[in-house]
Write a structure and sequence with these properties.
By secondary structure, this protein is mainly alpha-helical. It has a domain of about 50 residues. It has two helices and no strands. The longest helix is centred in the N-terminal third of the chain and has 49 residues. The protein is elongated, with a radius of gyration of 34 Å. The model has no long low-confidence stretch (mean pLDDT about 80).
Length: about 90
Amino acid sequence: MWLWLVTGFAAVAAVVALIAVRRLRRRLGDLSESYWELRYEYTRLRSQVARPSPDSPDDSPATESSPSTQVSYVPLSSIKPGSPKS
């Protein structure tokens, strides 16, 4: 009689554990999906903040300077130490 009681208790415990594992697996899947959605949104918003919008005025000093003060191409050979300057 005790053997049947222990077996019944073990079967009920196994069913309860199975239900709990399935619920936790579903919850973990939802949390993982939410994490990746949040990560995608964070990356998208970070890229929007990194580049200026076309509507906003650009406050960089390069736009305020005259064309004559802009930096042009300088060959590396003229910068290297020990090279003859032309």
